[in-house]
Amino acid sequence: MIESTGYTKLRVKMILTTLGFSLIPLCILSLVIFRQFENAHTAKIVQNLNHITENKRRTIDLFLNERLSQLMAIAYTHKLEYFLEDGTLERVFTLMQARSKFYIDLGIIDQDGNHVIYTGPYQTIRTANYKNEDWFNQVLAKGFYISDVFLGRRNYPHFIIAVSRRDGDKNWILRATIDSDIFDSLVQSDQLGANGDAFLLNNENVLQSKPRFGAKLLGKMDLGSYARFPGVRTESITFDGKPYLFGLTWLENKNWMLVIRDDPAEELTPLAHTRSMVWFILLGGLVVIGGGAVLTSNTILSQLVAAEREKASLNVSLTQSSKMASLGKMAAGVAHEINNPLAIIKEQAGWMRDLLGEEDVKASPNFKEFEESIGKIEFHVNRARDVTQRMLGFARQLNPVQDDVNVNDVILQTITFLQNEARYRGIEINTNLQKDLPFLTSDPGQLQQVFLNIIDNAIDAIGKDGNIHVATMAVHEPDEIIITIKDSGPGIPKEKLDKIFDPFFTTKKVGEGTGLGLTISFSIIQKLGGRIKVESEEGHGATFIISLPM
Amino acid sequence: MDINILLVDDETDFVETLTKRFRIRKIQVASASNGPDALKLLEGQEFDVAILDVRMPGMDGMELLRAIRARHPLTEVIMLTGHASLETGMQGMNLGAYDYVLKPADFDELLDKVRRAAERKALNARAQQAGS
After folding, report:
1. Is the pTM of this model over 0.80?
2. Which DSSP string corresponds to B23-79?
3. Chain A residue numbers touching B105 (CB-CB < 8 A)
């Protein structure tokens, strides 16, 4: 029988295998695509950041260069005496301011560090001496100087650009102060996004411009120390507990580092979209593949179950056939072995009977007893012979012959055979045989044995007074001849219906039946490629239906 | 009419009893328990009817039947077969046996067949004599 737990296990295994083989590639594919996309996207972000950083550096460098060039042009086109003339510096300063509003003031310092002349809002510094200032020595040594942003004497964030001019054996310095706010507007722009930032740091990590978030101008912003490097560098740095992407570059004219901060959360939004889309596709794939796996396994399993059932029923009939074959062989062997002693017993009894005819035995007082006893021996030997011959008959149908058979003729012949007995018991056998019944290729002797067994059984079942109806009919698809033998006997009880073809099953009294008649019939019909079945209801007779293939 | 029969069967008890039963009916019986012995007896004497068991060790009834038909065509043969089937009997008939009897046989039936076989043998013998 089909075991349902075995099939459940098989189904689970099939579904899991299908899912495994479909989902693993799907997952790998999704992951690879997502990674590729992520890489491409990150590369683009980095490239973009590089681009912005580079652009801004160029802008700031250009700005510083321009300022430096302007101051140099002014210093080198005029002698010191020219500036010392009253109002000249002020005029120059106004001119410069017209071009660039970020100049705070302008002054000239002699080689001793004294402020020679000054124009601007901070008059208190016009008498200042810078001899000991670091920048003063540097500008004398290098010819120009750009300072860090500082508050200085003006107490206002600014930086200075100074150029020195050698005039004969004298040096003088033209110095301009520039409002450092200029960097804020130069560095920052709407390219940075909502959470982006940009600022300048000097080599001690002190802010040279005002960042949008966090620390103030001139505050410290610790991003680690970076030695001066060429070009733009992109770094991922955790800042305030959040990972940020930083674009770093050193200015050309000043040892300031331009820092552009990029908020990855903002930049990665498309990536997040992609991620959720991948998940969605993956989930959809899971549902579709899962459904497909269940559907496929169900289909396969139902086919498997059907095949298994077919196999089981085939097995049953094969078992029946082989049971019959071995039973037949055994029966034949037993019958042969028993027949010889039976023959001897029979002849011995016969010999005794012969001797009874002699006169001296006839005179014996026990003569009647002897005669009776011999009669009984002969009767029971005959009974045993009937059994062995039926057994041999059962064995015989192992090799059926092939002949053209008119089933109607065989039936009529069989009925003739039993007509006397039936008439004697008041049983009427009538027939309804199809006239133009096609011929069969079959074994007439064996068919006769089957009909004989069944009709004989019917006569026995009825006992006295009744009728037996035999009919033949040809049907198509499948092409078969159907023979029905119906009796008016007491019928077969339900619990015995499925046993009546079993060997040695009999309802007759001991000595009257061998229990092999229907077994033989069953295996004959099976050998001939047909089927035999019985329909019966207790009290309403029994009907045997035989179908033979044409 | 005197009938002279040859009984061939490997079951001695069977042969003995049958012999007695035939003899009491004035029928002459010679017996053999196997094929070669039977053929030897046939060489020395003419029998009207031979009764052969089909199943015998060594040379079986069918082989013996063939030999008898070949060498002593006048002798009629009755086969004793243990098979309930007609096949063995029919096979024997095809090979020239006069008839067959199922074993265990009804003695009267056997006796009847023996008598008829003997009659046919006599007829055949007369026809042969007339012919020659």
Report:
1. no
2. HTTTEEEEEESSHHHHHHHHHHS--SEEEEES--SSS-HHHHHHHHHHH-TTSEEEE
3. 343, 346
